[in-house]
């Protein structure tokens, strides 16, 4: 088997699946992450011009389905109809998952395909009938070995993920000679180091294959499990759920004019680590026995943990309800934050606090603010019409070069399954555009006709940079990427993820629109979204106090000849209590109905804060974005015009009452302590 990148160069087709979901209960946050991950990969490849087919579905047979239906007082078919259409497919549509085919294992087409493959493998002599006794995990719906069991806190050994301990069963079933293909699979894995990624999961499979894997039981007596696909040669048995479910990846292509065997060799399968063995051992050997080529790549992701780092669970009270999450937050914010925070190779914490923090900092302050200020300046200085760029400076040439290189960098990271790094590369470009605007100071350029051409160039560069950013982020935030372009006057226009610059025609009318990513606390008519735990703890400690000016008062010279002034002196211990920090202004806006106040969003290391400051008379909001200031970080928060101000910015005042923000000689990183 050749390397993934080499295969991609040989064929424009790209086939990707996510694990089909077991329809015995509502989806959880792990399902959501997997589908968003698979969707983002599919979208990246579509944007790169590849012919993508993305397959999803629901797994609807087996013993657990029968038991869940009986408990709910409905038939198995009624249970899976509801869960498949409402709970799963309904949620995926809300999350803008762009699947091309959705397969249900109860579909007649799928049943016929499964029976055909079973018959082929049976006729080849790879399926036989025998009696077996062993430990059976109902949760995993398969026989397990004692080595696979893990002791729980109660001292009982269980298969991971199954709440019940395995039970000893003895019954006659049909078996697949899986061990016949063990050496072939081992050799294939050794020859293809990128077949299973991340590499740690490949190592797990190599360890599995270092010992005998034995045959695989592939049927259940119909008298015990009636809910399944009958074996074509024995109607008294139904097929084992994995021999049914895994074949759904190829079902869409039966009778479509595309050979399932060809598609099989193109597949990227995206799965969770808890079903590694079925996809890394069962599925390859099944494909080999059926005469189908092995998939191209198996992408394995880890689990999503609660925000406190613990495993999620209803009993712990820390589980996330995906539907409630979609009801409470913008879909693209959920997509972005999950993909940005989660890592394939390690379990990743996630929760509303993390979501709100990323929403406010990355999406609202970095991307949303860039769009708002760009559109605002085009309206203010050019009557809402995008001007043509003129002679570029070295800075514009740098931005253009970065824009041309960025799509290739992103696609390379996606091919290496570094999705969070691909997102960060795009966001770094966005942050650089914010710095560029702060450096260029278009509000100053607008003051003179002599700098009109320079202003045109800055405005065009910012708008075109936003277009590039929208394309680079479209796989992650598809709805907001389209909305961003619509605000730039590019409604309905699509672009390939390829190096290009200057695609917005000069003279385009820029309509603008609502805030791209409203911060949760800014949404009227809704309760505030859950904040990060630190913020919650801080708010509990805050006492209401009257409005105070949030600009440092001028420091008067200290005289030593009067007792009153001497008493104003402070000790070194008093000074040590003041926590002064370098902070970077990442967003700024005027406070409504307040002539003196500006609302600043500042970044202090990894923390983002809101500060209200009475400096509106001396500073335009746009001029402050990107500026470093000194913040009194441990000042008790106060509310000004209903906005909580979390600190005070230092400023000096001359004899005429003019203010000047205390600045820095060095470009120190935000969060640096001032001594």
Q: What gross morphology would you assign? A: elongated
Class by alpha and beta content: alpha/beta
Please give the alpha-carbon distance between the first and last residues.
60 Å
Helix content: 25-40%
Low-confidence parts? 1-10, 522-567
* Radius of gyration based on Cα positions: 30 Å
Give the overall average pLDDT: 87
Q: State the major sheet.
A: 7 strands, parallel
Tell me the fraction of residues in β-strands, as a range. Answer: 15-25%
Tally of DSSP β-strands: 28
- Helix tally? 22
Enzyme class: ligase
Keywords: Aminoacyl-tRNA synthetase, ATP-binding, Cytoplasm, Ligase, Nucleotide-binding, Protein biosynthesis, RNA-binding, tRNA-binding
GO molecular function: methionine-tRNA ligase activity
Function: Is required not only for elongation of protein synthesis but also for the initiation of all mRNA translation through initiator tRNA(fMet) aminoacylation.
Please give a structural write-up.
This protein is α/β, with parallel strands linked by helices and 675 residues long. It is 40% helix and 19% strand. The strands form eight sheets. Strands 1, 2, 3, 4, 10, 15 and 16 form a seven-stranded parallel β-sheet that branches. Strands 19, 20, 21, 22, 25 and 28 form a six-stranded antiparallel β-sheet that branches. Helix 10 (276-290) links the parallel strand 15 (267-272) and strand 16 (297-301). The longest helix is centred in the middle third of the chain and has 31 residues, at 352-382. The relative contact order is 0.08.
């Amino acid at each position: 088997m050749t390397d993934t990148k080499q295969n991609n160069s040989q064929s424009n087709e790209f086939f990707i699946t996510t694990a089909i979901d077991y329809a015995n209960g509502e989806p959880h946050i792990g399902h959501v992450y997997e589908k968003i991950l698979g969707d983002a990969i599919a979208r990246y490849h579509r944007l790169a011009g590849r012919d993508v087919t993305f397959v999803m579905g629901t797994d609807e047979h087996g013993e657990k389905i029968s038991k869940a239906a009986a408990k709910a007082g409905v038939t198995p078919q009624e249970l899976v109809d509801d869960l498949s259409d409402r709970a799963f497919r309904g949620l995926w549509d809300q999350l803008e998952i762009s699947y091309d085919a959705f397969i249900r294992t109860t579909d007649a087409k799928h049943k016929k395909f499964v029976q055909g493959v079973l018959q082929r493998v049976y006729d080849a002599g790879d399926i036989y009938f025998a009696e077996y006794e062993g430990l059976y995990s109902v949760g995993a719906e398969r026989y397990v070995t004692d080595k696979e069991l893990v002791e729980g806190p109660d001292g009982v050994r269980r298969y991971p993920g199954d709440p019940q301990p395995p039970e000893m069963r003895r019954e006659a079933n049909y078996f697949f000679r899986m061990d016949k293909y063990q050496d072939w699979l081992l050799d294939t894995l050794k020859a293809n180091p990128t077949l299973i990624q991340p590499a740690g999961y490949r190592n797990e499979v190599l360890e599995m294959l270092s010992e005998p894997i034995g045959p695989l039981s592939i049927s259940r007596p119909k008298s015990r499990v009636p809910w399944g696909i009958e074996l074509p040669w024995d109607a008294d048995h139904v097929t084992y759920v994995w021999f049914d479910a895994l074949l759904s990846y190829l079902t869409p292509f039966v009778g479509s004019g595309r050979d399932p065997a060809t598609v099989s060799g193109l597949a990227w399968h995206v799965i969770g680590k808890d079903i590694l063995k079925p996809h890394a051992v069962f599925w390859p050997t099944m494909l080999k026995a059926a005469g189908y080529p092995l998939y191209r790549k198996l992408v394995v992701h880890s689990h999503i943990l609660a925000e406190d780092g613990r495993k999620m669970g209803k009993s712990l009270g820390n589980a996330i309800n995906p539907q409630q999450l979609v009801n409470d937050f913008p879909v693209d914010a959920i997509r972005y934050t999950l993909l940005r925070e989660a890592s394939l190779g390690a379990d990743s914490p996630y929760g509303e606090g993390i979501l709100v923090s990323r929403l406010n900092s990355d999406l609202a302050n970095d991307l949303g603010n860039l769009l708002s200020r760009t559109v605002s300046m085009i309206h203010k200085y050019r009557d809402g019409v995008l001007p043509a760029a003129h002679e570029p400076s070295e800075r514009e040439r740098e931005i253009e070069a970065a824009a041309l290189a960025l799509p290739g960098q992103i696609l390379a990271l996606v091919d290496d399954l570094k999705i969070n790094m691909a997102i960060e590369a795009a966001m770094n470009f966005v942050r650089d555009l914010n710095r560029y605007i702060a450096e260029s100071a278009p509000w100053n350029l607008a003051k003179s006709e002599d700098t009109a051409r320079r202003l045109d160039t800055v405005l065009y560069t910012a708008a075109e940079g936003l277009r590039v950013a929208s394309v680079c982020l479209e796989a992650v935030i598809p709805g907001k990427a389209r909305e961003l372009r619509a605000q730039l006057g590019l409604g309905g226009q699509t672009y390939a993820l390829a190096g290009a610059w200057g695609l917005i025609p000069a003279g385009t009318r820029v309509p603008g629109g609502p805030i791209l990513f409203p911060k949760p606390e800014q949404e009227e008519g809704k309760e505030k979204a859950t904040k990060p735990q630190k913020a919650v703890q801080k708010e509990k400690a805050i006492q209401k106090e009257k409005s105070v000016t949030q600009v440092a008062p001028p420091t008067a010279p200290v005289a030593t000849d009067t007792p009153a002034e001497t008493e104003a002196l402070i000790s070194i211990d008093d000074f040590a209590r003041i926590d002064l920090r370098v902070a970077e202004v990442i967003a700024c806006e005027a406070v409504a109905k307040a002539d003196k106040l500006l609302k600043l969003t500042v970044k202090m290391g990894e923390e983002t804060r809101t500060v209200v400051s009475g400096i509106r008379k001396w500073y335009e909001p746009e001029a402050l974005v990107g500026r470093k200031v000194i913040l009194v970080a441990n000042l008790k928060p106060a509310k000004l015009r209903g906005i909580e101000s979390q600190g005070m910015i230092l400023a000096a005042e001359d004899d005429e009452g003019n203010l000047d923000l205390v600045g820095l000689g060095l470009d120190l990183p935000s969060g640096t302590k001032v001594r």
